[in-house]
Amino acid sequence: xxxxxxxxxxxxxxxxxxALDPVALGTWxxxxxxxxxxxxxxxxxxxxxxxGVLPGIIFEPVTAPKTEKNRVHLDFRPxxxxxxxxxxxxxxxxxxxxxxxxxxxxxxxxxxxxEFCLLHH
Length: 121
Fold this sequence. Notes:
By secondary structure, the chain is of the alpha/beta class. Helices cover 18% and strands 30% of the residues. The chain folds into two domains: 1-65, 2-Layer Sandwich (Signal recognition particle alu RNA binding heterodimer, srp9/1); 68-121, Roll (2,3-Dihydroxybiphenyl 1,2-Dioxygenase, domain 1), CATH 3.10.180.10.
């Protein structure tokens, strides 16, 4: 961009997740993250860490199930990886192998198969 035209600021507002059941998947993520549901419409289910605090996560309906590895995924850095792993697994997250080999992070899938990583503290 030309300097004389000013600058543009981008603000990260949302992560959008396609879901067969946006309400169920959004509720699952709200529970494991301890986030707040700010919109519980089936057409656009949204959670935020606190109301009005961005970025948030929006779950939108799709008709086809996930069939391949995510092109984008979320990484979470817990204060205690073992306790966080126990929490995720108690909520139904499952460990998955996407070819990561032996690493300090753990790859999980949420109830609809979306991969995310639990980093080492």
